[in-house]
Amino acid sequence: MLDQNYPNLEYVIIDGGSSDGSVEIIRKYESRLAFWVSEPDKGQYDAINKGFSHTTGDIMAWLNSDDKYLPWTFTTIADLFSQFPQIEWLTSVFHCFWDGRGRFVRCEAHDGFSRTLVIKGGALPGCGWYAPAFVQQESTFWRRSVWNKTGATIDVSYSLAADFDFWMRLAREAELYCVEVPLAGFRRHKSQKTANHMTEYLRQARESFVARGGRPAGMLKNFWLKKSAKLLRYLNRRHAIACAQQGNRNRAVLNADTGRWELTG
User: Fold this and answer.
1) Which domains are seen in the chain, by residue range?
2) What is the distance between the alpha carbons of residues 3 and 70, in angstroms, rounded to a whole number?
3) pTM score > 0.85 for this model?
4) Which of 33, 69, 205, 206 could form a disulfide with 164 if both were Cys (CB 3.0 to 4.6 A apart)?
C-alpha cells in the first residue's frame, strides 16, 4: 500500500494493541504515516471511526488488515474524483480475491451497482430476493462531503454489517458510480469473521436494510427477476440484466485514444 506512488496520501493505522510484532512493523514505516496508534479498542468499526477522526483528505476509504489495494488504485481514484465533481461515491465492478497465503485466485465481473440497486436490496445476497453481489468494501471510495452528510461515522451498533449500513446511508445521499478497473481485493481464509459469521452478518444487514428504508422487489417481480437472470446469463445478457436490476450504466471508462476518463450512461 505504501508503494502507490501517489503523493497526496494520509495513511492512518489503528492497531488494537497487537502483541504479534505488528507494532515493530508499524514503527519501521512511521515516517510515512499521518497517524498511528496501538491500543485496545471496542472492535473493528470503533477502530475505523477512530482512524477517520485523524484524517483530513477529501477522498476516503478503509482497508482491513487482511485485504489489499492494487498498484494503480490511488492514481485511478484520484483521476476520477478530480475529473468528475459529480462523483461522490465510487466502486469497482471487478471484485478481486486472494487466498490465505496472499495469492491472487479470483476476479469476478459484475454488471454494476447504483444507489437504486442498494435501496432495492440488489446488493444484499442471501436474504430471499434476487441480488447479484455485495458492494465490495475494499473497492469503494467516497468524498468527505458525503461522509459528513451521513453523520461522519460508522454505526458501531452493527458489529459485523456496519459496512452495509454505511452503503444504505450513502445511497440516500449520492449516486453510486462504477469503474471497470479492479481496485482492491478481499482475502479469504477460514478464520475470518465473514466466513464464520455470515448468518449474523446477513441478519444485521437485513435489519439495517429495513431500518434505512430499503424496499426489495415484490414476490412476483422478484420471481421474474430470478428467472430472467438465469435466461439472460445463458444469452450473454450483460447490458439487459443491468437495466432490469437497476444496475448503474453510469460507468467511468478510460478512452485509450485520448488517455482521459469518460462517463457513460
Assistant:
1) 58-264 (3.90.550)
2) 10
3) no
4) 205
